[in-house]
Records
---
Amino acid sequence: MAEPLHPLHPATRTVQTGRPPHRPDEPLNVPITLASTYVAGGELEYGRYANASWTAFEDALGDLEGGRCLAFGSGMAAITTVLDLVAHGDKVVAPRHSYTGTLLSLADLEMRGRLTATYVDITDTAAVAEACEDAALVWFESPTNPSLEVADVEAICAAAHEAGARVVVDNTFMTPILQRPLELGADIVVHSATKFIAGHSDVLLGAVVTADEQLYGVLKGRRDLHGNAPGPFEAWLGLRGLRTLHLRVERSSANAAELVRRLAPHPAVEEVRYPGAGGIVSVVLASADHADLLVRSTALWVHATSLGGVESTLERRRRWQAEPATVPDGLVRLSVGIEDVDDLWDDLEQALDRLPG
Ligand SMILES: *Cc1c(COP(=O)(O)O)cnc(C)c1O
C-alpha cells in the first residue's frame, strides 16, 4: 500500500486509523473479538491483557491525541487508575469545579489518608502555579464541567513541570478534534469516551493517552492487574462512534454557537457560559425552580444526565448532591446535539417563554 504524501489531517485520520492492513478479502474494520483466552505461544495470552477490538480503538484515539492509548471500562475506571499513580500522601491540585466523579474520588482518597487535595480556580493561572509547589500531580479539565471555565493549559503545564509535578488533562469536553493537551505539555490525557467519542449515548467507555513510554507501561500494568478494561463490544462501538467524531463535533459546535447567540438576549436567561467551541453550553436561570421547570417543559431536548450524544440533552446540575455549591442553583447544562438548530431553538424558546418573569 502506498504511503500518503503529507501528514494527514485529523478528519482523515479519524476515518483511516485503527484498521487492518489492506489485503484481499480482509474486512475493512477490525471485527469484534470475543475471547477470554488465546492459544499459547503468542503475545496476547489472555483476555485481560489484550484484545484486537481494544487495540483498534486505541490506535485510532492514540493517533488523534498524539500518544499511546489504553482503553478502560469507563471514564471513571480511567480516572481512578491514573489517580492511583500518586504515592501515599502526595499532593494533588485540581479545579474546585470538575466532573463530580473526579471530585468524589479525590475526596474519598483524601478521607482515607491516601493523598491531599488542593482546589483552585483554574482560570487563575498565577494561583494554580503557586499551588503546584510541592504537588505531585496537577489534574484539570478545560473547560470545566459544568462551569465552563477555561484554563491556560500551556502555562499550567509549564508551571507544574517547573515544580516537578505531572499534569493530567481530562479532555472529554473538547475531544482531540478541538484540543490536544499532549501537544500543549500535558503528560496524560484522560477521556470519558462515553461522551463525544462514542457519541451515541449507548456505551460506557474510558481512555488514557500518554506519549511517555514508561508511563504507558505502568498504566498498562495497572490495567492488566485491576482488570478495568472495556468489553470488546464496547471498544468496537467506541471506534464505530469515533469514525464520525469530527463531523459530530463540527455540527454540535455550530449549533451551540448559534444557540448561544439566541439565548443571550432572552429575558429568562441571566447568564450564558460558552467557551467559544464545543457542544456544551451552560445557562444560568433565576432559580432552581426556573431550571426545574425548563427541563420539564421541552419536547425535543431530553432531560438526562451525561452529554456528547447525537441527541440534545439538558440537566440542572445542582440536582446532584455532589455538585459543588459554588455552581449556581439555576445552572442548566445543555449538551447540544446534531439536530436542526431551528428545531432545537424553537423547543428551548417555548420552554423559556413559560418561565415566570
Ligand atoms: C462523564 C465524565 C466522566 C466520567 O466518565 P464515565 O464514562 O461516566 O465513567 C469524566 N470526566 C468528565 C469530564 C465527564 O463528563
---
Amino acid sequence: MIYKRSSALFAEAQKVIPGGVNSPVRAFKAVGGDPIFVKKAKGAYLYDEDGNKLIDYIASWGPLILGHAFDPVVKAVKERAELGTSYGMPTELETRIAELAISMVPNIEKIRFVNSGTEACMSAVRLARGYTGRDKIIKFSGCYHGHSDSFLIQAGSGAVTFGSPNSPGVTQGTAKDTLLAPYNNLEQVKALFEANKGEVAAIILEPVAGNMGCVLPQEDFLHRLRTLCDAHGALLIFDEVMTGFRLAPGGVQELMGVKADLVTFGKVIGGGLPVGAFAGSNEIMSKLAPEGPVYQAGTLSGNPLAMAAGYTMLKYLNDHREVFESLDKKTEYLHKGLDEVMKSSEMPWCINRLGSMISLHFTDKVVDFDTAAKGNNDTFKKYYHHMLDNGIYLPPSAFESWFLNDALSYEDLDKTIEATRSFVNS
Ligand SMILES: *Cc1c(COP(=O)(O)O)cnc(C)c1O
C-alpha cells in the first residue's frame, strides 16, 4: 500500500506538533515507519488520506465498541450541537446519564463526570487519599492509569514503548507515594502493606489489564486484593476505563463478582467523545466538592455534546445486551482462527483474551509486565507491517490489546486470520 500523503502530512505535523502527534503511541515509534493519517471512518473501517481502506482493530483505543460513526450517536451529537455546545451550567442530560450508568454498574451510588480517563484516575486517587487520610497508593507494573504524575512510575503503554519507565518531570516527592507490585503477585502486595502499615490509601489496578497486551487476573487475584484492602483499611480502585461497558454492562465488578470501592471510566462511556468518570458509594463520593472537602472541577466536565454521545452509547448497550455476546463470539472466532494458524508456526507465541480484548504475543506466556516484555519485538514489527500491507490496522505497539468492535464482520475476521497465516508461512 502507498502512504505518500500520510507521510507528507506527518512531515508537516512534526514542524508544529511535538513528534507530529497529540498522543505518543500514534507515532509508530514502536513499529517503525510513518503513522497513517486518517480521513474518515465508518463501521469497522478506516479510510486514510491516501485512499486506503483498513480494517480497524483499535476502535479509537476502545471507545467505539459499535464501530465508527455509529448512526444514533452521530444523530444525538448533531441534534445537541444545535442547542449550544457548552454552558458551564447544569443540564438534565447529566442526571440522566448518571442514573443510567449507576443502574448498569454494581456497587456505585454516585458518579462524577470528567473529560478523560487520566482525569478520572487522578481524581479517584485524590478522593481515596482524602477519604482515608493516607498518602500512599499501590499500583501494578504495566497497568496504565493515564499520564498524571502519581502513575508515571514504570507505567505501561506509551511510556513503556519508549523504554522510559520514569518520565522526567515527575518529582521524587510524588514517586515515593506510589508503591509498585508485579501484576498477579499477591505476595508482593502483602509485603507492601506490611512495610507501609496504616499508610496505604488505595490499590488501583486494571481488573483486566489492556495496556501490556491483554493480561487476565489469575484465579482469585481480585478477590484476594479485596480481602487485603479490607484488612488494611485501604480502598480498592478498579480502573475500568478500558473494561467498563466493554467486557460486560457492569464491567469487571459484574463479570467477576468483586466489589470495588471506586471505579473509573473513560472510552466507551463517552461514545467517542472526550469523557471520563469516577464513581462509588454515597459515603465516599460525598467527600467530593462541593458536598465535601476534596476538590475536583472542570470547565467542560459534563459537556452536553459528550454527554449526548455517552448517553446514547450506554442506552444502546443497555437495551441491546446481545452486543456483548456477539462481540465475545466474534473475538472467540478470531482467537480460534489465530490459534490454529500460530500452531503451525515455529516461533514462541501465546494469545490472551477476555471478551472483546485480545492480544497475540511472540513469547510463551504472558501474566504480567515482565513476561509481556519478553515478547519478540522484531517479530512483532514484521507482523505489524505485514498486516498493514494486507489492509489491517492493529495497535502499533506490542504492549497493547486489540479492541474489537461489533461492526466487524466474520469476513473481516477471516481476512485477519488469513493475513496472519501468510505471515507465518512467509
Ligand atoms: C486509556 C486508559 C486510561 C487513560 O484514559 P485517557 O482518556 O487516555 O486519559 C486510563 N486507564 C486505562 C485502563 C486506560 O486504558
---
Amino acid sequence: MPEIEERYPESLMNTFGPPKLALVRGEGAHVWDEHGKEYVDLLGGIAVNSLGHAHPALVAAVTQQLQTLGHVSNFFATEPQVTLAERLLGLAGREGKVFFTNSGTEANEAAFKATRKTGRTHLVSTLDSFHGRTMGALALTAKQAYREPFEPLPGEVTFVPYGDVEALAAAVTDETAAFVVEPLQGEAGVNVAPPGYLEAARRITADHGALLWVDEVQTGVGRTGRFFATDVEADLVTLAKGLGGGIPIGALLAFGEAATLLQPGNHGTTFGGNPVAAAAALAVLDTIEADDLLDHVDRLGKHLRDGLAHPHVAEVRGEGLLIGLSLDAEKAAAAVTAAQDAGFIINMCTPDRVRLAPPLVLTEADADAFLAAWPQILEEAYRS
Ligand SMILES: *Cc1c(COP(=O)(O)O)cnc(C)c1O
C-alpha cells in the first residue's frame, strides 16, 4: 500500500493543497505521523482540540452517549442537547435561546438568517475578517481571494477597518440589521480589538436599532483564558471550533428580542445538536471547570507570548492560547516547515504571520520545549 500522503491526491478534491503530513494518532498535545515521528501540536486542529487528543473525559462521554442514544433528529428532544443549551446560557449569564449547528459557518448562517428577520438587509462587517465559507458567511468575510470566484454573494455588506470606531459609526445606519465582528481576528493572524472597540460597537448598534453579532467561533470556549473573549453583551454570539473538542458542533446564542427572530419553519438542521456532539461539548465544559483550565490558559498564554520574543519577531499578539506573531520578513511558510522538522506543528496565516492555537491542556513542559526550539526554528527558516 502506498503512503497515505501519496494516496490522498488521487481521491480527495484539491481544495486544501497538499497535506503537510499524514497523522495517525494523538494523545494530549502530541500527535504522531505515519512514519512514527512525534510532534507537539501547537495548532490543535485550528483551535478545535481544546482537550487535546484522546482526552479520557471526551472519549468516555462520546462512547457512553453513542451506546445510549446516538442520533434522533430535531423532531425529538434529548437530554444532552437541553443541558448544553442551559450550560451555555448559564456561562453567558443572560436570558436567551440557543440554536445548534455542526460548524462555525453554519452557526453564522443561522445568525445571518436571524438578522434578515429584523426586516433590514444591510450588514456591516470588518476588513480582514473571517466568518466561514458558505455563501452567507462568505458574504461577510472580507478576503477577496475567497469571495471573488463566488460572487454575487448575498446581502448588502459594508466592510470597515477593524478597530476603527469612527468608520463603524459612519457605516451603521437606521437601515443596518447587524454589525458582525470577531473579538480577536483569528484567521487574519490574531488581531486584537483595541480597548473599548466592542463597547463602542454595542453603543453604535444600539443607537440605530441594529444587532451586535459577535463571532466567537475561534475565540470562545476558553481559548483566550475567559470562556467568552468579551463581556460585551451582544445580541447574537456564535461558537463552534473548541466547543466539541474535535466532535463537530457549533451554536448560535441569541439574547433578548434577538432570541425570537427565528420562528418555527424559519431554520433547521438534521445533525445540529445531535446528542453525541452535545455530550462531547458537555465533557469539554466540565473539564474546563474541573481542571481550572481558564487560569491555566491565561498563565501559559502569557508565558508563551513572553518567550516568543526574538530579533526576527516584529510583534507578538493575542490572548490566552490564541497567539499570533509577525515576522520581519515573509518567512512564515519557512518557519512552519522548520518547526515541523523540529517536531512542532504551527500555522501560517499570511506570508509573514504565524499563529499558535494549541490545546487548552498544553503542558508547561511542552510550551517550554517549543520556546527552547524557537530560536533555532527561526534561524533555519531565515537560512532557507
Ligand atoms: C473558523 C471560523 C469560522 C468558520 O468555522 P467552520 O467550522 O470552519 O465553518 C467562522 N468564524 C470564525 C471567526 C472562525 O475562526
---
Amino acid sequence: MQYISTRGGIQAISFKEAVMMGLADDGGLLLPKTIPQLNASDLASLTDLTYPELARRILSLFIEGLSPADLEDIIHRSYGSFDHPEVTPVVRQGDLYILELFHGPTLAFKDVALQFLGNLFEYLLRERGEKMNILGATSGDTGSAAIYGVRGKDNIHIFILHPHQKVSLIQELQMTTVTDANVFNLAIRGTFDDGQRMVKEIFGDLEFKNRLYLGAVNSINWARVLAQVVYYFYAFARVQKETGCVEVYFSVPTGNFGDIFAGYIAKRMGLPVRRLILATNENDILARFVDRGDYSIAEVVETPSPSMDIQLASNFERYLYYLLDENPAEVRRAMTEFSQSGRLNFDASLQMRVTRDFLSGSATRAETIATIRDFHQKTGYVLDPHSAIGVKVGLQKAAGDCPLICLATAHPAKFGDAVLEATGTPPVMPASLQGIELRPRRCEIIDADTEAIRRFVTEHSC
Ligand SMILES: *Cc1c(COP(=O)(O)O)cnc(C)c1O
C-alpha cells in the first residue's frame, strides 16, 4: 500500500515512510492511495477473531514491508499492556452497547493507537539506525498516552505541550509523574489550539524538522488512525454475533476528528455502518458542519470534557479530501480559503453527501452532567463526561431499528469532578491512579511562543 498527501504535493511513499513523515512535507495529511475493500465473506471471516488476531488482519491490509512475525510482535506488545483480556470489550447497558476503549495504561482510548505507534517507532528507528524527537500538543489525553507509548524507549525523546492549568488534575499528573529521562513536559501559557498551531508551525519548517529528526504523535500520524480502525470491526463483530443485526450506528465523542475518521475508513472498507454519529460538546464546529455545512471557527469554550475542547480539528482535511472527490487542488483551495477567512461553506449537494455518512449533535455542560446522572440511575454504569456526550447524542439521533454502539473514550476516574457532581459519589480509582499525587513530577512552564519551544527542543533533543 502506498501513501499520498491530501494536497497532492509529494510522490507516493511507503507505509514506513508515511509513519516517519507524520505531517506530509507539502503541509497536507497522508492517506492510503486506495482503501482496501472487504466483501461479506471477508467480514464473516473476522467474526471470531481475538482483538490481536483481528488487528493483524486489518493492519496488514495497509502495511507492507513488515514481516508477519514482526507485526504480530508489535501488536502483542502494544495490547498486552491493556488490563482487559478483550482489549476493547463491548458491554450492553440499557438500550445500547458501550465499546470500552479505556483499558490501556492511561485509561483513555488514545492508548489503543499510541501503544502501537510507540512500538512501531522503536522498531522503525532500530531498523534505520535513526533517532527521533517527538513533538506534540495535547488537550489532555494524547499527552499521557503518547508519553506512556514511548517512555524509556531508546533513540526517542518526547516533548509534549499541554495548556497550563487547562487539563484535569489527573491528566496533568499522568503526564508530569513520568520522570523517565527521555520525557519532557511543557506546560504552555495558552490554549490547546495555541499548542497545536505552534507544533504545526515548527513541523512546517522543513529545515528544522529534518535537522532535529522531528516526529509526530498527534492524530495527524496515519498509524494512529489506522490502529483505531480495528475496534470498529471488533465492536461490530461482537454486536452482530449477539443480535444478528445487519447494520449498526456508532456514536463517537469527537474533538480532532481522528477517532470518527477511523470509523469512516472502516465504513469505506465495507463495514456496514448505517451512520457515524458525531457528538461534540459546546465546541461544535464539526456538528455545525454536518448539520448545515457551516465549518466556521469560534472561540474555544472550556467544558467538563476538555479532550474535546477543540475548534481546529486536525483530521478534518482527511475527510475533506474524500468529500471533494479526492481532488488535491480542491483541498488546497479549501484549506487556503479556510486559513484566510476562518470559514468554509458547503453547498446543499455536498451537504447531502455528508449526511449519507454522518449524523451529528452537541451536548451542553448541563446535558453532559444530566446524562451521567440519568444513565447511572438507569443502569448503574458510570460514564465519563466525553462518553456521556456520545451516549446523549447517540440516543437522540439513532433510529431504534438497529443497534447503537457508543464509544466510551475515557475511564470515569480521569474526570472525577464531573462524576461526583452528577452522581454524588466520586468514581472508584483504578490501581494505576492510586497515590499518583504523591509521586515525583517533572514539568517546565513556558510561554506560548514558537521560538521558545523551538529553543527548548533544540537544547534537549536526542
Ligand atoms: C481525544 C479524545 C476524544 C476526541 O477524539 P478525537 O479523535 O480527537 O476526535 C474524545 N474523548 C476522549 C476521552 C479523548 O481523549
